[in-house]
From TrEMBL:
Coiled coil: none annotated. It comes from the Bacteria. This is Isoaspartyl peptidase/L-asparaginase family protein. PANTHER family: L-ASPARAGINASE, N(4)-(BETA-N-ACETYLGLUCOSAMINYL)-L-ASPARAGINASE.
């Protein structure tokens, strides 16, 4: 039975030092166009009666295929000059989840996370084992050249002979994770997140994106959340699950819980970034404590919103 609450979708493409001065007019338009494209793809699935799981996966695939974002095609270089990608997806109905970390050459890591959710007895696979599973499921692999971009290569060249890592595009802080959250016509929630991690990252570093409860979480009773920011802080503070807990145990609204976690709990400990979240009632929250966050949302019956800066 369909509920009378609106369906909704929100997406993000990363947060950080994103100001009007840091983006040209051309780049501003390009980012907005890609956010709108991903939003449209997911929204049309929901409008046609599709599931939240299908909508968030499809929206994230669009962002992974775009070189503007640090996920999939646009992933940054690690210490060895390779691309290690993480992703997770979660179904709010049964708290089912699939996650992968450190995968190389998989065109769309979010599709691999979805395969883990639907076709394995596990939640979290990593590195060579995750890639072997991807091959067994017939997923598309791409050569190293597919993931190469001159801009990302130049970032890495600045750092490759040092022990410094970079959070994304420039020496200013930018966190290039992508993600989507949704509630469908049946009232079911889902969340998905994908990232290429940090430039020059070493030792098979894994951030919060694929960690259920830290960077990704969905529960039909409370909310669906996808995070973007300095992953170590989001892991320590179990950010996505904390938003859910404040709703479940403290009776907070979605926006109250999301604002408290991002602009008080995280900020007070030096954690920078933001999140997108949606409730079973179709409410959307997109707080961030950085100067900007690539974001968009569309609630049934309302106009779609696309934003970049903190205004």
């Amino acid at each position: 039975m369909e509920k009378n609450t609106p369906f909704a979708l929100a997406i993000h493409g990363g947060a950080g030092t994103i100001t009007r001065d840091s983006l040209s007019a051309e780049m501003d338009l390009e980012y907005r166009a890609m956010l709108r494209q991903a939003l449209n793809i997911g929204y049309e699935i929901l409008k046609a009666g599709g599931t939240s799981l299908a909508a968030v996966e499809a929206a994230v695939v669009v962002l992974e295929d775009c070189p503007l974002f640090n996920a999939g095609h646009g992933s940054v270089f690690n210490k060895r000059g390779l691309h290690e990608m993480d992703a997770a997806i979660m179904d709010g109905r049964q708290l089912a989840a699939g996650a992968v970390a450190g995968v190389q050459n998989v065109r769309n890591p979010i599709q691999l996370a979805s395969q883990v959710l639907h076709h394995s007895d596990h939640v979290f696979l990593s590195h060579a084992g995750a890639e072997e599973f991807a091959r067994s499921r017939g997923l598309t692999f791409e050569p190293d050249e597919y993931f190469f971009s001159q801009h990302r290569y130049e970032q890495w060249q600045m750092l490759r002979d040092s022990d410094v890592f970079m959070l994304d595009h420039t020496q200013e802080k930018k966190f290039g994770t992508v993600g989507a959250v949704s509630v469908d016509k049946q009232g079911d929630l889902a969340a998905a997140t994908s990232t290429g991690g940090m430039t020059n990252k070493n030792y098979n570093r894994i951030g919060d994106s694929p960690v259920i409860g830290a960077g990704t979480y969905a529960n039909n009773r409370t909310c669906a959340v996808s995070c973007t920011g300095h992953g170590e802080y989001f892991i320590r503070h179990v950010v996505a699950y904390d938003v859910s807990c404040l709703i479940e145990y403290k009776g907070m609204t979605l926006r109250e819980a999301a604002e408290l976690v991002v602009n008080q709990k995280l900020k007070n400990h030096g954690g920078e970034g933001g999140l997108i979240a949606v409730s079973p009632k179709g409410e959307v929250a997109m707080p961030f404590n950085s100067e900007g966050m690539y974001r968009a949302c569309w609630v049934e019956g309302q106009e779609p919103l696309v934003g970049i800066y903190n205004d």
